[in-house]
Amino acid sequence: MSIKRIEIAVGIIINSERNIFITQRQKGSHLADFWEFPGGKVETALGESPQQALHRELNEEVGISVARSELLTTLEYDYPDRQLKLHFFMVDDWQGEPKGCEGQLSRWVNISQLDVDQFPEANRPIIALLKRQAAQAE
Fold it and tell me: Which residues are recorded as binding Mg(2+) (predicted)?
């Protein structure tokens, strides 16, 4: 059995109050019930860039059109059955009101309230980075 290699674009949607929009993974999906930053697979076979995937996925998943995004970091993470390459983008300007467009729960949370135990392991370094940056900004 070969291990799946998946490239993912992830949007950290942050508002002026420094709250971040998160969604809950649906039952029946990989890592169901965990909270996550919205995003999705990069269609590399179609020549899609991570930033193009970010714009497409955030429109499909949470109903926004990204006006500005900046790459925060790219991380690789290995699960037993798949290898992920995650491109994390800060999104601080968009059109529309974010909501779960695919039936998933969603909410705004303050950076300080992000609980690593409620997120997939691959997201934990990003949560730590966001909390460090928020503490330095205070």
Answer: 39, 61
Extract the annotated binding site for Mg(2+): 39, 61
Tell me which residue of 91, 56, 53, 57 sits closest to 71, measured CA to CA.
Answer: 91
pLDDT band at 31; cut points 50, 70, 90:
low
> Which among 33, 12, 11, 50 is positioned nearest to 120, based on CA atoms?
33
- Between 103 and 114, the more confident residue is 114
Instruction: Pick out the residues of the known binding site for 8-oxo-dGTP.
Output: 25, 30, 36-39, 123
Q: Identify the residue with better confidence: 104 or 56.
A: 56
Query: The domain 4-137 is classified under which CATH number: 3.90.79.10, 3.20.20.70, 3.40.1190.20, 3.10.290.10?
Result: 3.90.79.10
Which pLDDT belongs to residue 73?
95
Give domain limits for the chain. Answer: 4-137
Detail the residues annotated as belonging to a binding site.
Answer: 25, 30, 36-39, 61, 123
Calpha distance 3→47 (Å, rounded): 22
